[in-house]
Amino acid sequence: MIKAMIFDLDGVLVDTAKYHYLAWKRLAREWFDMEFTMEDNEQFKGVNRVACMEILCKAAGKTLDDAAFNEGMTLKNQWYVEMVQQMEKDEVLPGVRDYVQKQRDNGILCAIGSASKNCGLVLERTDLKELFDAVSDGTVVSRAKPDPEVFLYAAKMLGVAPEHCIVFEDAQAGIEAARAGGMRCCAIGQPDVLTGYDWIYPGLYAIDQLKEA
Ligand code: BG6
Ligand code: MG
User: Fold this and answer.
1) Rounded to whole angstroms, how far apart are CA atoms 69 and 74?
2) Separation between Cα atoms, residue 96 and residue 128, nearest integer Å
3) Tens digit of pLDDT for each residue in 178-198?
């Protein structure tokens, strides 16, 4: 029985995945003279900032000392935040408000489960916060997806057991995190890019009714 839904933020509710991509792309070019493609970006989706920086350094074949490593993350975040601050409310992805509201009207609890430390800023820019009963994000958990911590914490905040939760995710690491937490997962994206999901749709706008698996 579905009692709760936990939504990833970037790329599921809001079109911010492109800003993370552009900010990492700029860092890769300016620091490592590296081309960073949309394909490279798949590995960065859903993964927290430290883990992304580690992947980038490894791809560039560089070992940075702590100060430089932190400086790289700070710069990337500065560029990302500058873009988010320019965001318009219509960057909420199609069908999101209606879909979440419909679940709430049906008595399903709704939470956010995001790796981002900028979750609060994005929710504020988009006026989405009031649609959710709980927010579990990068400011309250520390383990990066595919660790299930962020989703288990969301379920705990809602008081719902994992087997009654469905996670909505656009990242492979997030799908794996949902499964590791004992939750079913509805992937948002393309079937040739993602695996291991229970359902897949191109966006929340396309979901009519998730059939109980
Ligand atoms: C996730 C994004 O939601 O948040 C990742 O999919 C990002 O790409 C991660 O790295 C951490 O975000 P932030 O805003 O804390 O750097
Ligand atoms: Mg995402």
Assistant:
1) 9
2) 9
3) 999 999 999 999 999 999 999
pLDDT band (50, 70, 90) for residue 212: low
Strand partners, 165: 4
Distance 144 CA to ligand 2 centre (A): 12
Q: How far apart are CA 86 and CA 73, in angstroms?
A: 20
Query: Closest-lying ligand to the alpha carbon of 170?
Result: 2
> Which tokens is 92 given?
């909420």
Record the pTM: 0.94
Q: How many residues does the chain have?
A: 213
Measured from the CA of 114, which atom of ligand 1 is nearest?
3
3 state DSSP class of 205: helix
Q: Any catalytic annotation for residue 65? A: no
